[in-house]
Amino acid sequence: MATAAKPKKVDRRRFLTDTARMTAGCAVAGSLLAYVTRDAKALPDTALRPPGALAEDDFLAACIRCGLCVRDCPYDTLVLAELGQDGPATGTPYFTARDIPCEMCDDIPCVAACPTGALDKGLTNIEHAQMGTAVLVDQENCLNYLGLRCDVCYRVCPMIDEAISLDLLHNERSGHHAIFAPIVHAEACTGCGICEQKCVLPEAAIKVLPVRLARGAPGEHYRLGWEEKEAKGAPVVEGIIDLPDRLPGPGTDNLAAPGGFVDGLPASPESSFQGGGFEPTYKLPEVTR
Amino acid sequence: MSAKGKVHLPVGQEAIEEKGWYGAHKFLIWRRVSQAFFLILFLLGPWFGIWWVQGNLAGSMTFGFLPLNDPLILTQMMAAGHWPETTALIGGLIVLAAYALVGGRVYCSWVCPINPVTDGAHWLHDKLNIQKGWQPKRSARYWILGTVVVVSAVTGTIAWEIVNPVTMVHRGLVFGMGWIWGMVAAIFLFDLLVARRGWCGHVCPVGAFYSLVGIRSLLRVSAVKRSECDDCMDCYAVCPENQVISPALRGKGEASPLILSPDCTNCGRCIDVCAMDVFTFTNRFDTHVEAPNDAARVTEPSNRHAA
């Protein structure tokens, strides 16, 4: 018995030592690997995922980097990120809008090709894609904002008048021209990037950014009073007192009070008081015909 | 047998004399052909516009209807919390079934694009007579495999795909290499200078995974004529996992002549290199051993020439 017990004890010690060594080694290697995966999650701002791509965190759990979406893209828009050369996690598909934008195929072949669901088959209408959001990042160089009629981003937008519209502004510089300002409506923008690619400037003034960068978010409890009022068909709060509106101009006494304001009179005028004697410091320019 | 003076012949020399150069390299050649085949199949599209097969070793689509997917990647995906769509599941099951049948590590020796790299490193290692260096336990790869699945679950990513040289090299050759050559060079140097047979034999979790897939595989190498063995040790010298040989070759009497270890890659080099034709491919239920028989020994050479 004694002779049998001795080697067993040594075996147990050896087993425990080996296990501890392997565990420690794997903990070190695993931590390194986990660190590298964390690093790989940082998607560069110019890299856009294909239509229907899951949110980046979920995408890296689902994309096997097989490149079938790349093969089925008829415009060679999509590429697989190359190790050490491209920013996105190596081997994952992306596109750069300024190089080749997404042409928004009706049948969305890249999504159809994805075997794992990293590109969500729930996207059946390409107009609902959200690859990013176009933002006019540089109004100072945008030709339209300078008062010219470039309009290229607006004209080439596959969602013209929905995703980009031209809003008329007064041209302060010339005093009598209009500025046709390109305004992006993020709800309709698919992030295809055609506007960015076609922008005539050497460096595009309109760029497609990841949605997280392009958009703010309202507070969950925010309500737009005028929308609520319209939906209700009546004031949201009954019997609310309408406060006087402030007119443009200097000073704090430029109130268009319903009852008017007369210097020297008590702060709360009699209800019978009907204006008279009120001279605002600010006057609207007189219209002369 | 040492009386014949065969002991000091270079590895495989005896087999070449006995069976000719092709006979002594048959499986090696066919293995290289197979490795090239699985690479060229994927390169037909990008190089020649023949799109029979699209994708890469991680996932592919053949003739537009046959999906094939790496089951280890799907395992990590599920650990990361994403359930794959049916196409990938079917593709993964087909691959699992195929390797469960022919031997999991057939992937390593007949398909994997890293295998020629590590084989090359080992060839040079032998030529330069370098010491074997760091030899982590053979079981290390199973620990690494477990670690990879845990890291996938913890980080919510397909973790090994961020560093996996197997899929990276294949993807790189088909889609664009980037700095992947650097990774190939690193593995070559690791196997050459740090650890003999280090990557495939001790580290790679992909190989470990396929070992488990083929743990009950049908196709096996058997030391059918182990009684003929003249102890030249050539099979041990060429075998990338030579711990698998002894139980079969040195087994006595009733002991099975089959190499049943899932570490065996079914590369067939032992068959090539054996001048006595001890080894052969067979199925896992074929446990017959050719008895030491003087008559058989006499007729054996003539049979070989007749064949």
From TrEMBL, chain A:
Q: Which PROSITE patterns match?
A: 4FE4S_FER_1 (PS00198), 4FE4S_FER_2 (PS51379), TAT (PS51318)
**Segments forming domain 4Fe-4S ferredoxin-type:** 52-83, 91-124, 180-211
A GO molecular function annotation here is: 4 iron, 4 sulfur cluster binding
Q: Kindly list the organism's lineage.
A: Bacteria, Pseudomonadati, Pseudomonadota, Alphaproteobacteria, Rhodobacterales
Taxonomic superkingdom:
Bacteria
User: NCBIfam families from the entry?
Assistant: mauM_napG, PRK09476.1
Enumerate the residue ranges of region (Disordered): 266-289
Q: Name one Pfam family in it.
A: Fer4_7
Record key words, sorted: 4Fe-4S, Electron transport, Iron, Iron-sulfur, Metal-binding, Repeat, Transport
What is the name of this protein?
A: Periplasmic nitrate reductase subunit NapG
Automatic annotation (TrEMBL), chain B:
Q: Name one GO molecular function term.
A: metal ion binding
Q: Gene3D superfamilies from the xrefs? A: 3.30.70.20
Q: Which SUPFAM superfamilies match?
A: 4Fe-4S ferredoxins
Show the InterPro entries listed in the entry.
4Fe4S_Fe-S-bd, 4Fe4S_Fe_S_CS, Electron_Trans/Redox, NapH_MauN
The Gene Ontology CC terms held by the record are: plasma membrane
So which domain of life are we looking at? Answer: Bacteria
**Which stretches are transmembrane?**
36-53, 87-108, 142-160, 172-194
Matching entries from Pfam families are given as:
Fer4_5, Fer4_7
The record places domain 4Fe-4S ferredoxin-type at 220-250, 256-284
Instruction: List the keywords (alphabetical).
Output: 4Fe-4S, Electron transport, Iron, Iron-sulfur, Membrane, Metal-binding, Repeat, Transmembrane, Transmembrane helix, Transport
- Designated name of the protein: Ferredoxin-type protein NapH
Tell me the organism. Answer: Aliiruegeria haliotis
